[in-house]
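User: Sequence in, structure out. Go.
Assistant: Echoing your sequence, followed by the structure tokens.
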Amino acid sequence: MKTPTKLLSLLLAVPLVLAAAGCGTNPAPAGDTGGNASNPQDKEVVKIGISQIVEHPSLNATREGFLAALKDGGFTDKDNLQVDYQNAQGDATTNLTIAQKFAADKKDLVVAIATQSAQAVVQNVKDAPVLFAAVTDPVSAKLVASLDKPGANVTGAADTHPDAIPMLMDFIAAEFPNVKTIGIVVNEGEPNSAFMLQTAEAALAKHNIKIVKAAVANSSEVKQAAESLAGRVDAFYITLDNTVVSAVETIIKIANDKKIPFFSSDRDTVEKGAIATYGFKYYDHGYQAGKMAVEILKNGTKPEDMTVTYPDKLDLIINADAAKAQGVEITDSMKSKMQNKENLINGSAK
């Protein structure tokens, strides 16, 4: 009888030893980034929530660039990274619900793409780092106290280079001397649109060019608004207005049919069929925000100590086919203003 008793004791002891040993290799708590994320022994799953206001190429490219930077930084989806991507599809109630869900889920990091998403997230997520991207004016949108010292748990990447709009308006004034009025389809309910509209008005006033506005509240109104401007303006321009950009194909068609030069505020819209902008690749912009996320997750840097960034690459981008469709000849003078000749795009205009 003695042997079975010893064996039973040994069998009972083994799990206790294994349990005790296991305590030393448990994953570190979320937010404790002391381990090497690429080392399976130290692997922990980081939970990130991504809130995006609507689907369109610039915002999608921002998200793709963000995730690429995370991967390059050692965080791979479905390995040591769990990404909860939610898109509000332009609905304000859904946008708020997404932010509240992320707050309740206790994410390790929340990323908000576009101003409306960022405002909802900042109002609801107080206990986790928050990063924003594709936001035009984070101070006016009340996301951060200042660009240099964001404060609280929020920082991010703004998508407007301070020189972009003035340089585009200077380009229009210099290369299109017959343009005296510019029509803008705009949803002034978007803080980013209101800010960019004011900037454009100030820049155009220096050239005695007037702006004619056509207000919209949702994307279904964009076509009618653009049609109302045709015949009253010499050119079209749109800001980084998510309501308008979501339906930009309707403006491109009108611009082509009526031979009205159309200028935009982002590279993706130029690739679709606007003539020109001063811009950058939104993938690069998202990658920039992703590098900030890696800094937070891997090195424990606090958002309040991270200066808000904006794109460091700014160049003139021209769509030659769009220009032809809208009755504009691309001149050597226009081409000379491009630093990178690869920014002369062909073959995308419809």
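User: And one key feature?
Assistant: Residues 219 and 243 are 5 Å apart (CA to CA).
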